[in-house]
């Protein structure tokens, strides 16, 4: 299940191209592995999710993720508020958010802190 790897959302390492199958110094193999389903558990490489977890302004994982309610694009709160000092438009789709773009920003409610193992639920325990 691994992959994710650092800020920037690339998920790969070294000079090997995505899916090239080339081993990178340090033992990382960037070969793509398709998702597998075992019972009710889906296992996949975390880098598949990176495009949905990375702020396009700072290229890091979301920190205090906030969404523009007009167009539903999401950014780090600090990044989008800094962007609004110079612009009244969404940096992704250029939606006009005048006169006060800050009024269109809402916290996502749930943010990524640290990837953890899958949570255990009552129905997962043997009876």
Automatic annotation (TrEMBL):
Record localization: Nucleus
Compositional bias ranges of the Low complexity kind: 17-27
PANTHER family: POLYCOMB GROUP RING FINGER PROTEIN
Cellular component GO terms held in the UniProt record: nucleus
InterPro entries found in the cross-reference section: PcG_RING_finger, Znf_RING, Znf_RING/FYVE/PHD, Znf_RING_CS
Biased composition (Gly residues): 1-16
Sorted UniProt keywords: Metal-binding, Nucleus, Zinc, Zinc-finger
Organism of this sequence: Emiliania huxleyi (Coccolithophore)
GO molecular function: zinc ion binding
Region described as Disordered: spans on this chain: 1-36
Record-annotated RING-type domain positions: 55-94
Protein name (database record): RING-type domain-containing protein
